[in-house]
Amino acid sequence: MSTNSTHLAEVLTQQAAVNARLVEALEHLAHRLAPHADVPLDFLPELSESRTLYVKDNGTHLWHFFNASAPTEEQAVEGIPERFLRCQITGLRVYWKASSNPQKYDDSLKLRIEVRSDRVRDLESALDSAFSRGLLAQIATAGPEAMREPVVLEVRSGTEAHVVLAQLYTGGDRVITRPYRDVSTERLYAGARKALGLPSEAVPVNPRQAA
Fold this sequence. Notes:
Helix content: 25-40%
Number of strands: 9
Radius of gyration: 22 Å
Number of helices: 5
Largest sheet: 9 strands, mixed
C-alpha cells in the first residue's frame, strides 16, 4: 500500500471515530429532550369540571373532554390542543365498556389512568391501543422510584392514520423502552401496576359473555 493510501485510510478511520462520537452525543441529547419544566399542571380552565379525558385522534385533536355546559350535544365533545400534561400517575384500572347497542357483543376493554394534576383526572383509552400499550410499557420501564414523582405525558400522532402514541418523560428524560410488540397486554399491565406500587390485578372477563 502506498504512503498516500495509508494516510487516507488513517484519516478515514479517524473521521469514522469522530462521526461515531457525534452520533452518540446527538442520541444522548435527543434522550434529554423533554418538555420545559414550566409545563403547567393542567392545561385548560374549561377542564375544571371534567374528570375524564378521552384519547382519540379525530383528525384535529388527540384527546378530548366532555363539556357538560355546552349548548348542544355536538359541541359537548371538545378537543384539547395542548399535547403535554404534567401530572403524577397514581392509578390504573381496566374495565369493560358496554356497547351502545345492547343487542351486540361489541363491548370493549378500556384502560383508565388516574392522574393528579391540579385535581384528580382519568385518561381513557382502549386497552389494546398503541397509546395504552406504549404508556404501560414506559411506566414499567421507568420503575417505582421515578413513578413516585410527577411526570410529563405527551400525546403524539403515529405514522398510521388515527393512531395516537404516548411519550412519558421522567426527571427530564424521555423514557425509552425495549421492544414490546410480542409482549402481551396483560403482562404490560402487570408491569405498570408493579411500578406504581399497585397490587396485582388480572384483566377482567366480560361479565356479559361470562354470564
